[in-house]
Design brief:
Length: 999
């Protein structure tokens, strides 16, 4: 056992702040000699097709796969660890259990072997980690492993029905005796997609194959345990610049998992956002809540960020994260999130000066945590993309928000780290230095890290991953040796949280205070007491921005009182107070109180003082502006006003890259107006303007406005002007900007045209995206997609005998395909094609007759129709005749005739009035179409259309006869073959009322 007891002095606090800590290495145990490690070349897309076939194990992304990811967890007195077995030809998934009480080690070997990068076992992939958890409620073991955004179709279909890998044990397996801790305690897959009798991998976590779409395209499994023992799993859905975090929940009572729920939407552009984006960070369950912290990678390749930008943070007040999501200020956010700006904390890219496209590199050294009392800590790093540039910059950032504070404190006084952890109210940096573990500690809500543990002997480690539980670090490490099989160790390090419980309790009256510049008084009564009976507070020291103000050794611990008015930065408020010669300037200041008790234990509290400026308020119309080289006009109306009543603005001066342009002493403060068109670098735009002899050339320029008020106070504002020269990116085009197909289409192959207009350059790649999701990167011409070896790329079903039907064809709607061409200079162009998938049309059907008019007592009526299917592969099932929504008869083969032959009377019962006739055709796809006509049945004898036959009709009948109008032969009531006056008696007999002749 190794113990290092230290008393260290923080460089930021000089000699005033010390921290006692006794951190001990409790146990170290070797888990195996055979942890899989990739010892070969780091491949890329140019050589991944030719990996080493010998002993060396080439890899993609990184060399680590064992002791990597979510690979170590605890359950009661056991520590569980996952790993892959080395060497190169083994690769089995392994699970080890260490009994911390008796030192017993149990290991299970699973049949599954690491499948390698995109299914090539000769190329290792570091992203295919094994996530691990044990339910504290029922003792089931859960593992999700060996996947990187796979689905049924990508990578040539290599992962069909095997794109998600989940293994789980029976209840109670976690604490079985050593002899019973065996593979048979895990549940086999007996579903229809099982790969055999030794298949312990399940395609879904719900047990329902109908849910398999919910488990596709996932990466980076990580489990959490909530305060009530519920297991949660989170993973990343999708790709690097178009992704989402998803999570699900385990119900220990029913031993079942839910489907995945999204924290944020992917394909954000389709949902109204300006661009698609992915997440680089973590979802964590800390301090009793599910939380998310990440950096964003957008698909904008023309901004100053090479990959990621920003720091984003959110948390959920729902016990399991299913709703009630908020930003760090407690404001509700859209859930699932679409616009990441709703939860943005700050921009690390603002901490270096580069502005050119792809010049800022924010990758790695990002992590975050939250202490038990609610202090939020986020670490990040920003540097120049080009390490060789003369003005190379690199900044490590620690942003933290003490519990109760309203805003983050952003500190660049931070040496940097890759991960940050928490236990109790402290934050920790745990890592390797010279291959040996060390621990640094800071009180939550502070930036005061000191080293409390470091190993000076023992094995030299290559890397590791860790889990902290109940004040102990379970550090799972791989020893640095050689080959494709290297030893794995577990170290258990006690963080000595018990001593922290004895530390003093210290606090400011408020976590944050806002005052105006020139404030006269700020008195702070700092509360400090010991939680341990018999101890007393020896002193309280106040620091402002890490500078010691004073140490007070007696109650009350009051700073800024009448005898010391200046120590809190105030001017003074009594007549006897001389004005403070060094008052606090406008801006944010960190006040820190350090309490030390009679045993030498100490604690720290912080307060943020925001000092509002009295200086003028000045601003450009916008912070940055892009124009094309040779721009004709740039007029800038600079806003300037005093923040103090009674003061006025004396002048506003404009500078370009430090050179004075002009000082304006009267409103409006307008530069680049018609009388001075050249002063902002423009060419001029009026006929009276001669061309600018010295226009601003392509490049970036800093415009600075300096506003001065009548008291001589100044304020500066800046604007970045980017003058864009003519870029010459590749030219990429589709054969057609819009393609229309019918659902179920078998084939769609398209060759994309890509070329560079610049001599000496060539096209390096053409990348195809479907609705924002990566389809494939093609690195050699011709740029053909959807060909016979990749028939599904445009969503087609497949057309050759060897093509299995596409299980995920594109549905009805409009789909956007984006082609991105990249040339040898790194310039990119993109163009979109709209693929419109139409619903298969129903059959065509037509009633041959037009609208029909009949009289009651009609004797004959037949209706005929013709129909055909929309496609040769579709058959016609039936035609059905409806009259007034009443089915008359359905006919299953032509001829389609109603009212003839054996059915001659089926249409003879229509009553007086108008009837809707519909013929509905149905095809073998259950698609339907219809044709319709109207049949109008008039009352026989009702010549004036008043719905009765009466004397008026007989008179009209006689009148029509006299006028020689042709009458319907059905009015030949006496059957002599003509309609004449002798038929009047027959009409009278049809009168609606009796005694028609007397009406």
């Amino acid at each position: 056992m190794k113990c290092l007891k230290t008393l260290l002095v923080s460089t930021t606090l000089l000699t005033a702040f010390s921290l006692n800590a006794e951190v001990t290495l409790e146990q170290q145990v070797k888990i195996t000699e055979e942890g899989l490690h990739f010892d070969g070349r780091n491949l890329d897309f140019s050589n991944v097709g030719t990996p080493d076939t010998g002993e060396k194990y080439d890899y993609f992304f990184g060399p680590n796969i064992s002791a990597h990811g979510d690979a170590v967890k605890t359950y009661r007195h056991y520590v569980f660890m996952t790993w892959y077995k080395g060497g190169k030809n083994e690769r089995n998934v392994m699970l080890s259990r260490y009994n911390t009480l008796n030192g017993e080690l149990s290991t299970i070997e699973f049949p599954h072997k690491h499948t390698g990068f995109r299914g090539d076992p000769l190329v290792g992939e570091s992203h295919n980690t094994i996530g691990l958890s044990v339910s504290p409620i029922n003792g089931t073991i859960h593992m999700v492993f060996d996947m990187h955004a796979y689905d049924n179709n990508n990578h040539g279909g290599k992962f069909k029905d095997d794109f998600f890998r989940y293994s789980f044990s029976v209840a109670g397996a976690a604490e079985l005796p050593h002899s019973e801790f065996t593979l048979d305690k895990f549940v086999k897959d007996t579903s229809e997609v099982s790969q055999g009798d030794d298949d312990y991998k399940h395609l879904t976590m719900t047990g329902d194959l109908d849910d398999k779409g919910n488990f596709a395209r996932l990466t980076y499994p990580k489990f959490f345990t909530t305060v009530d023992g519920t297991l949660l799993l989170y993973m990343r859905l999708g790709g690097n610049n178009n992704g989402a975090y998803v999570f699900n929940r385990y119900d220990a009572e029913t031993e079942s998992w839910s489907t995945f729920t999204k924290f944020n939407e992917n394909n954000q552009k389709l949902k109204g956002n300006q661009y698609n984006w992915g997440l680089y960070g973590n979802m964590k369950y800390v301090n009793g809540k599910l939380r998310v912290g990440f950096q964003q990678r957008s698909n904008d390749n023309s901004d100053k960020y090479k990959y990621q930008n920003g720091v984003y943070y959110a948390y959920s007040d729902h016990p399991d994260g299913f709703g009630d999501w908020k930003n760090h200020k407690g404001e509700p956010m859209t859930w699932p999130l679409i616009n990441s700006d709703e939860i943005k904390v700050f921009e690390p890219g603002d901490y270096i000066s580069h502005t050119e496209a792809n010049s800022v590199y924010i990758v790695g050294s990002f992590d975050w945590t939250v202490t038990e009392k609610g202090d939020i800590h986020i670490i990040s790093k920003v540097r120049s993309t080009d390490r060789g540039r003369a003005d190379y910059e690199e900044v490590y950032i620690h942003s933290y928000k003490p519990a109760g504070a309203e805003e983050f404190i952003i500190s660049t006084d931070f040496p940097g780290a890759s991960e940050i952890y928490t236990s109790g109210d402290n934050v920790y940096i745990v890592g390797l230095e010279g291959g040996r573990p060390y621990v640094e500690k800071a009180q939550g809500g502070t930036n005061n890290f000191i080293r409390v543990y470091e190993a000076s002997d023992g094995p030299v480690f290559d890397h590791g991953t860790l889990y902290i539980k109940d004040g102990k670090v379970y550090y799972y490490l791989m020893e640095r040796t050689s080959g494709t099989a290297m030893p794995l160790y577990l170290q258990i390090i006690d963080l000595d949280l018990e001593s922290d419980a004895n530390a003093p309790i210290v606090s400011f009256p408020s976590p944050s205070v806002t005052v105006n510049q020139g404030y006269e008084k700020l008195s702070l009564n700092i509360s400090a007491e010991s939680p341990v009976e018999g101890r007393s507070i020896q002193s309280v020291s106040l620091y402002i921005d890490d500078e010691l103000v004073r140490t007070d050794d007696s109650l009350p611990f009051l700073f800024g009182h009448g005898s010391k008015p200046h120590e809190t930065g105030a001017l003074g408020w009594l007549d006897r107070h001389e004005p403070n010669p060094s008052p606090l300037s406008a801006g944010r200041h960190v006040f820190k109180a350090v309490a030390v008790d009679s045993e030498g234990d100490s604690s720290t509290a912080t307060m943020i003082l925001n000092v509002n400026s009295n200086a003028p308020i000045v601003s450009f119309p916008q912070e940055s502006l892009e124009v094309d080289e040779g721009f004709e006009r740039l007029s800038l109306n600079i806003s300037a006003e005093s923040a103090v009543e009674g003061r006025t603005i004396e002048s506003v001066s404009l500078y370009i890259d430090g050179g004075l342009v002009r000082t304006d002493t009267s409103l409006p403060y307008l530069f680049g107006h018609a009388s001075k068109p050249h002063e902002t670098g423009a060419m001029g735009w009026l006929d009276t303007h001669s061309p600018n002899p010295s226009p601003l050339a392509a490049g970036s320029y800093e415009f600075t406005a300096v506003a001065t008020d009548n008291e001589g106070e100044e304020t500066t504002a800046s604007m970045l002007l980017v003058v864009k020269g003519e870029p010459e990116p590749p030219i990429v085009t589709w054969p057609n900007s819009t393609v229309t197909v019918y659902e179920g289409y078998e084939k769609l192959a398209i060759t994309i045209d890509a070329e560079t207009p610049v001599e000496g350059r060539d096209i390096q790649s053409v990348t195809l995206f479907r609705n924002g999701e990566l389809v494939r990167v093609d690195t050699r011409p011709v740029w053909n997609f959807g060909h016979s070896f990749a028939p599904y790329e445009f969503g087609a079903m497949g057309w050759l005998d060897r093509h299995e039907p596409n299980p995920s064809p594109l549905g009805v709607g409009t789909h956007t395909f984006t082609a991105v061409a990249r040339d040898s200079a790194g310039l990119e162009s993109e163009t979109d094609m709209a693929l419109i998938v139409l619903s298969l049309p129903g059959p065509s059907v037509m009633i041959n007759e037009g609208d029909i008019s009949l009289l009651t007592e009609y004797q004959n009526l037949a209706i005929t129709a013709e129909a055909s299917a929309a496609d040769d592969d579709i058959s016609l099932v039936s035609l059905a005749l409806y009259i007034d929504e009443q089915l008359i008869r359905e006919i299953y083969e032509p001829p389609f005739i109603w009212g003839s032959d054996a059915y001659s009377t089926e249409l003879l019962s229509l009553t007086e009035g108008t009837h809707l006739v519909r013929v509905v055709a149905t095809d073998s796809n259950n698609k339907q179409s219809e044709s319709s006509i109207f049949i109008n049945i008039d009352l026989l004898g009702d010549l004036n259309k008043d719905s009765i036959v009466d004397k008026a009709d007989t008179r009209l009948f006689t009148s029509k006869l006299r006028a020689g109008e042709i009458m319907d032969i059905r009015y030949d009531f006496n059957g002599d073959g003509v309609v004449n006056n002798r038929d009047t008696r027959g009409l009278v007999r049809r009168c609606t009322y009796s005694r028609c002749s007397s009406n």
